[in-house]
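Let us practice reading a record.
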Amino acid sequence: MSNSTVGLNFNLTESQRAVQELARKFSEEEIRPHVMMFDESQEFPHEIVKKAGELGFMGMTWPEDLGGAGLTELDAIIIVEEIAKIDPSIALTVASHNSLCTGHIMKFGSEAQKKKYVPDLASGRKLGAWGLTEPGSGSDSGGMTTSATRDGGDWIVNGGKTFITQGSVGSTYVIMAKTDQEKGKASISAFIIEKGMPGFTIGKKENKLGMRCSDTATLVFENVRVPGENLIGEVGQGFKQALSVLDGGRIGIAALSVGIAQGALDASLKYAKERRQFGKALGDFQAIQWKLADMATEINAARLLTQRAAWMAVEGMNFTLAVSQAKLFASEAAVRATNEAVQIHGGYGFIKEFPVEKLYRDVKLMTIGEGTSEVQKMVIARHLLN
């Protein structure tokens, strides 16, 4: 029976294969030689990110007339997965830059805002950051205290954000703030804030377990005057906007998780073939074979869930449930895969010369960032019960 008869085709198109090969070549040649140097120094890889921008990776799905590559979400997850196999930190930079700050402006910004900010962001000439999380409000975004108060035609923003990706290296920031503390989530609004605005300072840069060359920092706002035209949409729409933006971001996190898991499997297969114990290759032992089989099966399942969510996004369908399922399963499967990869490597899995040690550290963020596994389960359950 042909694919056209059953209505399903799991093959990559010719253009998708070309995108995959481009991302793979970039990752192998530009990233792999420097992975551990950037991990240990925690230095942001400006030159690598610049090259990613030149290839169109910093504006994957955005229109070409705004500096983007004009790709689809299905193309984007291929790129993110390929980069994540080699260095999840850089894949996180690419995914978050595309989906959060730029994504928010593209989805909800005015035409004037898009024309002003997106070309520099989509080309990678400037980096974007997105601020929702605060020291006292993570999953409970309604508990944020950052405020925006009208002052004539402007807004005065006070407060702070924490765990902000691209926090210290960004130039353009989309920040959520309350316009009325009494109204909770209903008063959350989104504002575009630029680096250099008086009163806006970068706080502590975080020293992290993993994802160490992905920049993470706190932001501080002290009477920052924001022009009225920098409000995205209308007052009080910020929370609904943020939920939609997070849905898009979760596709990237799911793809990143698949890439990490695949990288762990690739390294484990190589090691199992080369390492010998008791006169046999490690891969000849059933205990190792079963680990590899479980890893491969879960990775394929995670990839299919991620592709389904991305396909639904391309088709303009409501993909909130699908992407929560993909993000939940892919991130947890990636944690299991890296754990098994370290176990397969034995003592060598605990040493930095082998890639699984870094993947093991990097992967944990996948079950935390852009909605914890527990939050994904809440989202899934609510959809099922409603």
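A brief commentary: Strands lie at 128-131, 147-151, 154-165, 172-178, 188-194, 200-205, 216-227, 231-232, 276-277, 280-281.
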